[in-house]
Design brief:
This protein has 104 residues and is an alpha/beta fold. 13% of the residues lie in helices and 28% in strands. The chain is built from two helices and six strands. Strands 4-3-5-1-2-6 form a six-stranded mixed sheet, covered by helices on one side. The chain is globular.
Length: 104
């Protein structure tokens, strides 16, 4: 199972195996893979969203998401960008190759 985790301007493909991890794990992995400092300056996720819906951070990935879904990590201070950091409309350009996809 692969989930596309959006952390600010980056999209990070995260392999989840069978998806038995909690949703908050996606935020931790996305933040850790964000940059060479392992996202240390970003802090932790305050929210993880799909579209405009907040996900239960303790819910299991395989019970909440489908293979290939995109989720957005919201960090403290991301309110300046809107609910999800970057909105779905902002990320439509990702399909055209105008993004940084950090594959596993």
């Amino acid at each position: 199972m692969k989930i596309h985790v959006h952390v600010r301007e980056k999209v990070i493909a995260v392999e989840c195996g069978t998806g038995v991890q909690p949703i908050k794990w996606l935020g931790s992995v996305g933040i850790a893979r964000y940059d060479s400092s392992q996202g240390i300056t970003l802090g932790s996720a305050t929210d993880i969203r799909i579209e405009d819906q907040a996900l239960d951070m303790n819910g299991m990935i395989n019970q909440t998401l489908q293979d290939g879904d995109h989720v957005w990590v919201v960090l403290k201070g991301d309110e300046q960008y809107g609910k999800m950091g970057y909105t779905l409309q902002d990320t439509m350009s990702f399909e055209n190759g105008d993004h940084q996809d950090e594959s596993n």
